[in-house]
Write a structure and sequence with these properties.
114 residues, alpha/beta, Macrophage Migration Inhibitory Factor, four-stranded mixed beta sheet, 4 strands, 5-carboxymethyl-2-hydroxymuconate Delta-isomerase, 5-carboxymethyl-2-hydroxymuconate delta-isomerase activity, 5-COMe_2-OHmuconate_Isoase, isomerase, Tautomerase/MIF_sf
Length: 114
Amino acid sequence: MPHFVIDCSENIIEIKSPQEIIQKVYDTAESTELFKKGDIKVRINPFKYYLTGNTQDDFIHIFANIMEGRTVEQKRNLSEKIVKELKLMFPDVPVISINIRDFEKATYCNKSMV
């Protein structure tokens, strides 16, 4: 917990390595101090087949799933920091975005909890 799932056009991982991209998102999320060190999980899904606004323009979108309890301001800060860092990393990519969803603590379960 938390989970950052990066969806992107396949070309993105030709510009920078998947590990570089994953590490940038990880480091940026960690820098916010909203999460315990070592708890952040990041994955990447490059897509060969997609449309963005009926084009084949490159894109990066992150689905961030975090435990409830953070303020709107904290989540806004997290979103803006990640997009800012990716924008620096990929200045020519026209679509870079993120959305944050809260997990409900009452319904979350993992292996160590059962």
